[in-house]
Design a protein that fits this description.
Shape of chain A: elongated
CATH class of the largest domain in chain B: Alpha Beta
Number of domains of chain B: 4
Order of helices and strands of chain A: HHEEHEHEHEHEHHHHHHH
Distance between the termini of chain A: 22 Å
Shape of chain B: elongated
CATH topology of the largest domain in chain B: Rossmann fold
Number of strands of chain B: 26
Distance between the termini of chain B: 20 Å
Largest sheet of chain A: 6 strands, mixed
CATH architecture of the largest domain in chain B: 3-Layer(aba) Sandwich
Strand content of chain B: 35-45%
Strand order of the largest sheet of chain A: 1-6-5-4-2-3
Largest sheet of chain B: 6 strands, mixed
Oligomer: heterodimer
Strand content of chain A: 5-15%
Structural class of chain A: alpha/beta
Structural class of chain B: alpha+beta
Strand order of the largest sheet of chain B: 18-19-20-15-21-22
Largest interface: A-B, 19 and 28 residues
Chain lengths: 388, 549
């Protein structure tokens, strides 16, 4: 049955071409937009587990930021390494920390950058500020000084707020001490992104997972409703779970090859140095394909016509985009939705450097989603008459 | 279940001494279903024996001349014990075979041998092992006659093959089978017997009590899907299909057909023809009884091995696949090994005249060729019944005629029973039985075309009048003639049905037409009714339908 499904796909030369052209075109498009965009090629990678300690190039934020509003659920960490006490008044580094406390919901103080880094990794904090030694001394002698802002590069929503908060706090700090003639420059260190372009890696990861999941879902959404001869085949002793399983596996195999190409192009085209093995990447992509295939098959078993399947897929497509957690915070849904899990899996392994064994929970969630979808598809499919 | 002897067979008679000629006769007809009647003596007891059976295998060598027969009927007058289910027949002086024959009658049933069972002499066990390796069937039943390893006493065991292997032996490689024999009744435990070739020189390597030195090995590869004994290959009793609203789509439909018969289901749209077929194959819930090859259609998984379904729409096969790939894709769902499907597929395509198209994508074939591929797909698993849903709809008369030729060929060559749903009553003439459905009444008539037509007035004969030209007054005029039951008109031809003597009515009809100045071209006093006449008469309520039991 699986062979039949594969043969069916392989026989459709145009569809086959499109399946393998899709990754190339996507990566090509990403290459184009990164070249066009000012962020393209921005090398900000923290180098995974060892990142943030001088591995990346700091980017100075502009001073014309807007007032940062509170109530965003922002938790900042502060590592105050400043030991100098050259100013007679209050401790300047503690004073800056107080301004941060005014703006964000909570500030957690850490004794070392390693602790703060760990907390950022565990997502206990949105970002952490490192106030270097000599911060107060420099300011009192009117020398410029800097602070390091470390944030999670994969947290697009959080990172957008971080720069605003940092700018807001430093401006308030400067305004409160007009005697200071020099400036406080915040330096940004983006953590947990692989070595290579920031846009290429983060958006690339999104596109890789997105196309593995939804690309396969789209193809398989037509696989039952569009397979007219299957109705005849159901009059043979084959059972419907077997049909569903064969279809899912068939599309996973196609997804495997598609992922192989997609990941290869992604890594090679942008010269990325990911923090996981290629095999692990392919396994993750196959899991995304499996989930996508199961989603598509579920759509295909629910739909009665190809038009219905198309409409349902579009709904899933937009819902997935909105709920991906990539653009908008989706709260607890982020822990359950399949594409979010696949995305998280890729970030945890390729960017944060975890092994697949460390992220077994996400893997189980994806497998569980696939199995439930397949069983649901079989049940719905079994309720439909064979000959209409 | 065993086939009855068909009306026409090719027969030849041989004495026991000429068994070699009988074997040659069989070899030249090796793909046919051959049967044999044998008279002779049992070599073990010396008693006379007479039986009829199907030829399983023939063997003609320098020393061996043997026909292996699957016994269908024991024809002895005085029976002393049961005969083995498989007997080997040798010449009149044979001592190595079960029966030394004195007279052999071989019969060719003039159709393809569709049996899957296999027979091997004990010495050919290694060949059996090779064939079984290719078979890959779920459950292979096996019966072995031979001698027990320990005391060399005759033994017969019947079970399921659980292992087959070849091993080197002093002279030639020897094949061995392992057969799991279930206990009779509930007493005892199942045992695994070791079946060895009789040339075993070094003694049994297995427990001698559980070793059988085989003489005859009879294998049924697809035993798990064997049909039980049945009389009618397809039977419906009070079949009723009700939708959720309570509306009955068909009600109390009862009919049956015998093995090898063709049935046409005719009726208007919405009369319940397709619903009946769906209920028969267990695709929709129904009440009453529907059986195919003796299996209740409610056992959907099992019954599917016994019918092939050929839908009207040609898009119900993979158009990008070649015909052979289609046959394999569908055939594999029946757990038939691919090599066997390739073999069968090629045979089917050759029989249907499209073998040369076997490797072209199906979409490149003509409509008629695609229809034949579709039939081939439905026949790949050797079904007992082929169901065809309006196969001739949309075809021109030439293609319709060609298709019916193929259906008749399938029916005769493979012995497959065929059920055809059709809109054309004239096509019912090609079939052995006809079922007529009417909207709201379900089955209104069932029987052979001849019997149904005989149920019309004057046993289906009528006065046929051909007019010079079509005249709308003619029918009314003829219906007004005393003694006329009804008139059926097809253009210039009018058929006048009556229970009165036809000559008398013919005279009255001609007189009545003359009075109206309607010119008559031909008058036939004994015009024969066809199925179109019958169908029109029954759907207009002019006659009462009969249902043949």
């Amino acid at each position: 049955m699986v062979m039949k499904e594969l043969r069916l796909i392989v026989k459709d030369k145009v569809a086959l071409l499109l399946i393998f052209m899709l990754p190339a075109v996507l990566i090509g498009m990403l290459a184009y937009v990164t070249n066009e965009s000012g962020f393209g090629g921005m090398d900000v990678g923290g180098g995974g587990m060892g990142g943030g300690m001088g591995g990346g190039v700091n980017v100075t934020a502009t001073e014309d930021g807007n007032e940062t509003s509170t109530g965003l659920g922002l938790v900042f960490g502060v590592v105050d390494l400043d030991t100098t006490t050259t100013y007679e008044g209050e401790d300047l580094s503690e004073n800056l920390t107080a301004y941060f406390e005014m703006i964000v919901d909570e500030v957690i103080l850490y004794n070392s950058t390693a602790d703060a880094y760990r907390a950022l990794y565990e997502k206990e904090i949105t970002a952490y500020i490192v106030i270097p030694d000599g911060f107060e001394a420099n300011l009192t002698i009117n020398e410029p000084t800097y602070i390091e802002v470390h944030y999670d590069g994969n947290d697009l929503l959080g990172s957008a707020s971080v720069s605003g908060v940092v700018q807001g706090a430093t401006i308030l700090f400067r305004v409160g001490k007009l005697w200071i003639r020099s400036e406080v420059f915040p330096g940004t260190v983006i953590e947990f992104t692989p070595e290579g372009g920031y846009l290429e890696s983060v958006f690339g990861a999104f596109i890789v997972v997105f196309s593995s999941y939804l690309g396969i879902a789209m193809t398989s959404a037509q696989s039952i409703v569009g397979d007219l001869p299957l109705r005849r085949m159901l009059l043979t002793p084959t059972n419907r779970l077997e049909v569903i399983t064969a279809k899912v596996l068939g599309y996973v195999i196609i997804g495997f090859f598609q992922s192989l190409l997609l990941v290869t192009l992604w890594v090679l085209a942008f010269d990325l140095s990911l923090n996981t093995s290629f095999l692990a990447l392919v396994i993750i992509m196959c899991l995304a394909s499996l989930t996508g295939s199961a989603t598509g098959i579920l759509i295909s078993s629910v739909a009665s016509t190809r038009l219905q399947a198309n409409q349902m897929f579009l709904f899933v497509l937009f819902a997935t985009l909105i709920l991906a957690g990539f653009f908008i915070d989706v709260g607890v849904l982020d822990e359950y939705l399949p594409m979010n899990q696949a995305m998280g899996l890729l970030i945890d392994t390729a960017f944060k450097g975890l092994s697949l064994l460390d992220v077994w929970e996400r893997i189980l969630k994806l497998l569980g989603f696939s199995v439930i979808s397949m069983l649901a598809a079989s049940y719905i499919f079994s309720k439909k008459p064979t000959l209409g | 279940m065993d086939d009855e002897k068909p009306a026409f067979v090719e027969e030849a008679y041989f004495s026991g001494a000429r068994i070699g000629d009988a074997i040659d006769w069989c070899i030249t007809r090796q793909d046919r279903e051959l049967h044999v009647e044998v008279e002779g003596k049992l070599t073990s007891t010396g008693k006379d024996v007479k039986f009829r059976g199907r030829v399983l295998k023939v063997r003609k060598g320098v020393l061996v001349r043997r026909i292996a027969v699957f016994i269908e009927e024991d024809l002895r007058r005085r029976r002393a014990g049961d005969l083995d289910k498989v007997l080997t027949v040798g010449g009149d002086n044979s001592s190595q075979d079960d029966v030394a024959s004195t007279m052999i009658t071989v019969q060719n049933y003039l159709k393809r041998n569709m049996a899957d069972d296999l027979y091997y002499d004990g010495r050919d066990l290694q060949q059996a092992v090779k064939d079984l390796e290719k078979m890959k069937s779920q459950e292979v039943a096996c019966t072995v006659w031979g001698r027990r390893g320990s005391d060399k006493l005759p033994i017969m065991i019947k079970g399921v093959i659980v292992g087959a292997s070849t091993a080197p032996a002093p002279i030639l490689p020897e094949g061995t089978l392992e057969i799991r024999v279930a206990p009779e009744g509930d007493v005892g435990d199942p045992k695994i017997y070791h079946i060895a070739q009789p040339q075993l020189l070094v003694g049994p390597r297995y427990n001698p009590n559980l070793t059988v030195l085989a003489n005859k090995v009879y294998i049924m590869p697809f035993a798990w899907k064997m049909a039980p004994e049945y009389r009618d290959v397809l039977a419906a009793r009070n079949l009723t299909v009700k939708v959720k609203s309570g509306l009955k789509l068909i009600e109390n439909v009862s009919f049956s057909i015998r093995e090898g018969e063709m049935l046409a289901i005719i009726g208007e749209s919405g009369a319940g023809k397709s619903t009946t077929v769906k209920a028969l194959i267990g695709d929709i819930p129904s009440t009453g009884v529907a059986r195919i090859a003796g299996i209740d259609s409610k056992q959907t998984q099992k019954v599917r091995h016994f019918f092939g379904y050929c839908p009207q729409d040609l898009s119900y096969m993979y158009e990008t696949f070649t015909p052979l790939e289609n046959i394999i894709a569908f055939g594999k769902q029946y757990d038939i090994p691919e090599w066997q499907l390739i073999q069968r597929g090629k045979t089917l395509l050759r029989d249907f005249g499209i073998l040369e198209k076997g490797n072209s994508p199906t979409k490149e074939l003509s409509g008629g060729q695609q229809r034949r591929v579709s039939i081939g797909i439905a026949l790949a698993h050797k079904p007992k019944v082929l169901l065809m849903d309006e196969p001739t709809s949309g075809l021109d008369p030439d293609n319709r005629s060609e298709l019916w030729n193929y259906l008749t060929y399938i029916n005769q060559e493979y012995g497959t029973s065929i059920i055809v749903i059709t809109h054309y009553p004239v096509e019912a003439e090609f079939c052995d039985k006809v079922a007529v459905f009417m909207r709201g009444k379900s089955l209104v008539a069932f029987g052979s075309p001849a019997r149904l037509k005989e149920s019309m007035p004057s046993r289906g004969f009528s006065v046929g009048i051909v007019l010079e030209e079509v005249d709308p007054r003619a029918r009314k005029t003829l219906e007004g003639v005393k003694g006329v039951r009804f008139v059926l008109q097809r253009g210039e031809l009018l058929k006048v049905f009556t229970d009165e003597p036809l000559e008398v009515i013919a005279q009255s009809c001609v007189t009545a037409l003359k009075e109206q100045n309607i010119a008559v071209k031909i008058v036939k006093t004994k015009s024969v009714a066809d199925m179109v006449d019958y169908y029109v008469a029954i759907t207009r309520g002019l006659i009462q339908g009969t249902i043949e039991k």
